[in-house]
Amino acid sequence: MSTVPPNRYARQVLLPQIGPEGQERLRASRVALVGCGALGTVIADGLARAGVGYLRIIDRDVVELHNLQRQVLFDEADVAAALPKAVAAARKLARINSEVQVELVVADLAPRNAERLLDGVDLVVDGTDNFEARYLVNDVCVKHRRPWVYGAVVATYGMTTTFLPGRTVCFRCMLAKKPAPGTTPTCDTVGVLGAAVNVVASLEVVQALKVLTGQAEPEPPLIFVDVWEGTWERLSLQKGERRCPACDEGRFDFLTAREVDRVAELCGENAFQITPRGDGHIPLERLADRLERVGEVFRNEYLLRARVAPYELTVFADGRVLVKGAADEAEARGVYAKYVGA
Hints:
This protein is of the alpha/beta class.
């Protein structure tokens, strides 16, 4: 007999594509969501409401006021409390569906932790905003034969597809080389429409439900949609003549990349994230005592935020630092060295 409560999912169970058996499969499923921003909040909300039993939310960022235009799980109270997005999302989802087990991970997906963070799940879903993370997800999923759903959105358009390692092309087959910085539009340069985010994220949820209920298409197409123009395309993804380093040769360049101090300009944030190599754990209490001498400091159990004009620094316990107010990477590194440490 089904253990799924009859009322919560009644309208979904009526669908022939789901039914009681499909609902049970969703309840037994485990999903990792990488990124809980614009796409990720809609995806997390959709999967929790659909009854996916376990959801691991991996996100590196903090809720900001400008997020509220399109990131549906957050509100002004989360901004005021400077909550990490994974924390704020987990709290909201607990009120939406207490039957779903939500594991929150406040971390940046990196070569040193990617296999561990994406382990023990049936599916990985993409809510990221950068190519580096997607190539890394692809390496892990191809290596471990784990399906994953890709999605991206900018301005008024976006795309999504599902990769089934061992059966279909992979992300690196589709995009052989990472685009050079400045060659592709970002939400920071061209903006993003919240409605476009909702459409693409909802399509990702549908792709996830298909995989989890055993109904993924043999060769999932790349779906491209522009909500402003009202256009929709389904594009077939086929292997090219060139061998793929990842799925043909088993070479996982992004997963095995040498760890270095990384600086990334954050889309829509007017900020730089500095991630030190290795274990960069920072004692927040000790750092707060030092920074209180030069600026205004706020601290909670997840992070420390310091305003030292004209900069704002958000420091996580794992060593990551967001620097706002720096004009470029070099200035951001200088601010990090001055106030946090070389």
